[in-house]
Amino acid sequence: MTTMIGVLAAIFSTICWIPQVLKTLRTREVKDLSLGTNVMVLTSVSLWLAYGLSLGEWPLILANIFSIICVGTIVLAKLAWGRA
């Protein structure tokens, strides 16, 4: 049961990034996105990944790899197409 809660949390906390990533890539509009906030989120999910790796917990590992890809895409888009 505990693993299932972790899996569900991982799924919901990662898929929430998909609409923002798709909209950002489609429109290249980044002026309303906060670089600081997204860098902090990227840092936090990177630390969660390190934590998940140290525990060997696959829900944490997979969710945070996916989140790093999504948030990293947003950060790179902000750097490429917008001003901080």
UniProtKB/TrEMBL annotation:
It is a multi-pass membrane protein. GO terms for cellular component: membrane. Gene3D superfamilies: 1.20.1280.290. It comes from Paracoccus tegillarcae. The chain crosses the membrane at residues 6-22, 34-54, 60-81. It is found in: Membrane. It comes from the Bacteria. This is MtN3 and saliva related transmembrane protein. InterPro entries: PQ-loop_rpt (IPR006603), SemiSWEET (IPR047662). Keywords: Membrane, Transmembrane, Transmembrane helix. GO terms for molecular function: sugar transmembrane transporter activity. Coiled coil: none annotated. Pfam families: PQ-loop.
